[in-house]
Design a protein that fits this description.
single chain, about 500 residues, eight-stranded mixed beta sheet, 17 helices, about 35% helix, disordered N terminus
Length: about 500
């Protein structure tokens, strides 16, 4: 049991500044050195090979067999496995901030519109302290002064017990009696502030948050974000700001806007820029929860490590495929996961958790799915520009014709598993033997990204708000090319509509 806990906990570990481009690790495979410059460089290096080899190379689909194989890895190789698992565990939520490489500057600091960024998953640093906390394992502290929770520094974890204790500290807990998401009793988590980042091209600030929590667990953060936007508005000649959210930041952004009064939004927010949104979730999140997503050129234990972090925080449920009855959600006939004896649709997520041994997480899943932000997906009530990648093979079951024409032509099972699941959370299923793909950005199918267009275009036009949508061919999830960055910057700076964008006006 302890070895299982150690394997589980190790998945949450990451080298210092995980999620940034400042940390570098290396490992040698076949006398070749692979340098991984944080998550951003990782995805850039591996995405093409991964997409090409998902169904064609068994080595890239292997799942870890347990702690024994972990012990066979060199220290460097294992640390790289931890880095990969931590930074990509909640696929497809990973994203890099879409800062442009080259853009034309408009205006000066006093007159240019400010942009407020909502970071993607894992891009906010967290600090925690313990006071009379529960002792989950012998040796875990119940009292602890302020200590870094995320990103973790591996050098601070000296004993196996340290990994177990840290894993429990990172987990989220759902209180069904109060319908509240939070940390363990006795644990206090704070978000480290990110300073204003002056830029030679435009003015922007990052507003970090506790990314472990689902939308309904961020009410305190929304109060902070509201006050921050009001301050930035006053500091920039009372110009309404642009709210920019890459990947998971787009979901946090729309959840925040749903909770603001319309008069407030009209005064303070000019544009909402949603980059790589996950409006209807993604089938890939199911694979991450079941068996872990493994990338090529990684140690064989990667998928197991990846899977554990996917199952430890409640935000993971928010990107499960969205059950619904429209063409841009996942209905009860769309089989996403199949074993020899059972099929699972988006409506079967609770049963999937039970069959995997996570029956204690069903209450949290159902509470997340009861949230209205993505279930109803009301429009944000401000001018909106949605950016998404396309023309990349992405796990999914709907072909392009059904996406474009809103006609379901056929559906294929997405993830095929050769054996039945065991109701034991510590038994990691082998990776699927077959993965069907559709069009998308590599992680998120196109039907999810464009859901907002079909749900919002008429209502927003009626209410007097502009909706723009633009697809960028071969642009991977969470990334933004020079053209993409120039497009949204020109839009918020001068009002120039991007060439080729769909518009509801």
């Amino acid at each position: 049991m302890f070895e299982r806990h150690l394997l589980a906990f190790a998945s949450c570990s990451c080298a210092e500044t995980c999620g940034s481009s400042l940390w570098m690790a290396s490992t040698r495979r076949s006398s070749r050195s692979v340098h991984l410059y944080g998550c951003h460089r990782l995805v850039t290096l591996l995405k093409t090979d991964w997409l090409e080899r998902r169904n064609g190379n068994s080595k890239s689909r292997r799942v870890g067999l347990g702690i024994a194989q972990t012990s066979m890895l060199s220290t460097k190789t294992f640390f790289v496995a931890l880095l990969l698992a931590s930074c990509t565990a909640l696929l497809p939520l990973y994203a890099q901030n879409p800062f442009p490489l080259k853009v034309t500057k408009f205006g000066d600091n006093e007159t240019s519109r400010a942009a407020v960024f909502l970071p993607g998953l894992t891009h906010s640093n967290l600090t925690y302290s313990l006071h009379n906390a529960r002792n989950f394992s012998t040796g875990c502290p119940v009292e602890l002064n302020a200590t870094t929770l995320w990103p973790v520094t591996l050098g601070n974890l000296h004993k196996p017990e340290d990994f177990v204790c840290y894993y429990e500290a990172l987990k989220t807990f759902y209180n069904a009696s109060s319908n509240a998401f939070g940390s363990q009793p006795g644990e206090h988590v704070t978000v480290d502030p990110q300073p204003v980042e002056p830029d030679e091209y435009f003015n922007h600030t990052n507003v970090p948050y506790d990314w472990r929590m689902p939308m309904d667990g961020l009410s305190a953060f929304y109060t902070i974000l509201k006050a921050h936007i009001e301050t930035i508005y006053e500091e920039h000649n009372q110009l309404p700001i642009a709210l920019v959210g890459p990947s998971w930041g787009a979901e946090v952004g729309i959840s925040f806007l749903h909770r603001m009064e319309q008069a407030w939004k009209d005064k303070y927010v000019k544009w909402f820029i949603a980059q790589s949104p996950v409006w209807s979730g993604a089938p890939l999140a199911f694979e991450g929860f079941i068996s872990g997503v493994i990338l090529p050129e990684t140690p064989s234990t990667f998928a197991a490590l990846n899977r554990i972090l996917s199952t430890s925080v409640d935000v993971a449920f928010q990107v499960f495929p969205q059950p619904g009855t429209t063409n841009n959600t996942y209905n009860s006939t769309k089989v996403l996961v199949k074993t020899p004896a059972r099929s699972y649709t988006a409506f079967d997520a609770a049963q999937l958790l039970v069959d995997l041994g996570f029956d204690d997480r069903v209450d949290a899943l159902q509470a997340v799915q009861a949230g209205k932000d993505l279930a109803d997906l009301k429009h944000p009530g401000v001018n909106t520009f949605v950016i998404h990648g396309t023309e990349l093979p992405t796990p999914g079951e709907t072909d392009l014709l059904s996406v474009c024409c809103a006609i379901t032509m056929y559906a294929l099972d997405v993830f095929i598993y050769d054996k039945e699941f065991v109701p034991d959370r510590f038994v990691v299923p082998k990776s699927p033997s077959k993965v069907e793909t559709t069009e998308g950005d590599g992680y998120v199918p196109m039907i999810s990204a464009i859901r907002g267009w079909y749900d919002w275009k008429d209502a927003m036009a009626k209410d007097g708000y502009t909706l723009l949508y633009k697809a960028y061919p071969k642009q991977f999830h969470g990334q933004c090319s020079d053209t993409c960055a120039q497009d949204w910057y020109n839009l918020i700076a001068t009002g120039q509509v991007p060439d080729g964008a769909w518009s509801n006006q």
